[in-house]
Inverse folding.
């Protein structure tokens, strides 16, 4: 009878140890799953960061395109301003030349009148 009770006690202790080992394996498994989840979250954050960096680069490329376009537009405006100045200078030169020609015509008329008066004087003289 004592042996039987001993065996039962031993058996009970064995199953208790087995249950403890099972709980330990379960805890280890949970820890492992948690590490895997943590690792996956980290990889996800890294993927998001990479996407953010890519988006930032894309925004920078777009900004550079915009700046380039703005510089081109500004150069075109500057050329247009210069052309307008050139045209204005040409118009001014043309007005000056026209005034010169007009003065020349006036002087020619005056000279003609002077000669006409001189001829009259000579004829009358």
């Amino acid at each position: 009878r004592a042996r039987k009770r001993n065996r039962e006690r031993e058996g009970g202790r064995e199953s208790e140890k087995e249950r403890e080992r099972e709980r330990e394996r379960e805890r280890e498994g949970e820890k492992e799953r948690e590490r895997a989840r943590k690792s996956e979250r980290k990889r996800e954050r890294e993927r998001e960061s990479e996407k953010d960096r890519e988006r930032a680069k894309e925004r920078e490329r777009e900004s550079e395109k915009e700046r380039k376009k703005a510089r081109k537009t500004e150069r075109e405006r500057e050329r247009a301003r210069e052309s307008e100045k050139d045209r204005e200078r040409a118009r001014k030169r043309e007005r000056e030349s026209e005034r010169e020609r007009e003065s020349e015509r006036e002087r020619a008329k005056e000279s003609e009148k002077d000669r006409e008066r001189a001829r009259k004087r000579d004829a009358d003289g």
In short: DSSP finds one helix and no strands in the chain. The mean pLDDT is 92.
